[in-house]
Specification:
Layout (H helix, E strand, L loop, with lengths): L1 H7 L4 E13 L12 E2 L2 E2 L5 E9 L2 E15 L2 E19 H6 L1 H19 L2 H6 L9
Antiparallel strand pairs: 1-6, 2-3, 4-5, 5-6
């Protein structure tokens, strides 16, 4: 797909890239992550809640939004659940030719940053609930 975009020649400068992941859960998630939110020493875990914060690491700005106990629609199906939304931005400001010489590296760095943030957020108990299978690196 990037090859098709490059062949248009429309872009002079690539200012930034964004890679966004929306992780949907059919349950409340605040009690299953390593982020604690409380008010007057009372934990907020059941309420409809949205938390947004930004992190800068290794040249990637990661925007993390956690939406707990909210109405979610996937296709034609609606349910109450939670959403972990991670948007990884790389500010570049480089020519189209320079960008396409290392575009795969930029995408891979953003992808790795998203994975690092997502997996560091989930508790081991929450992660185990989903029976993850990992690919072996060759």
């Amino acid at each position: 797909m990037l090859g098709k975009i490059r062949s248009t020649g429309v872009f002079g400068t690539i200012e930034r890239t964004g890679l966004r992941y929306l992780n949907v859960f059919e349950r409340r998630i605040l009690d299953g992550i390593r982020m604690k939110l409380s008010l007057n020493d009372s934990a907020i875990i059941d309420e409809s809640t949205t938390i947004r914060t930004e992190f800068l690491k290794s040249g990637i700005v990661s925007i993390l939004q956690v939406n707990n106990n909210v109405e979610i629609t996937v296709g034609e199906r609606s349910f109450r659940g939670s959403l972990i939304d991670i948007d990884c931005l790389a500010n570049l400001g480089e020519s189209q030719d320079d960008f396409f010489m290392h575009s795969n590296e930029v995408i891979e760095r953003s992808h790795n940053r998203e994975k690092e943030l997502f997996y560091s957020l989930l508790t081991s108990e929450t992660l185990a609930m989903f029976n993850p299978e990992y690919e072996e690196k060759v």
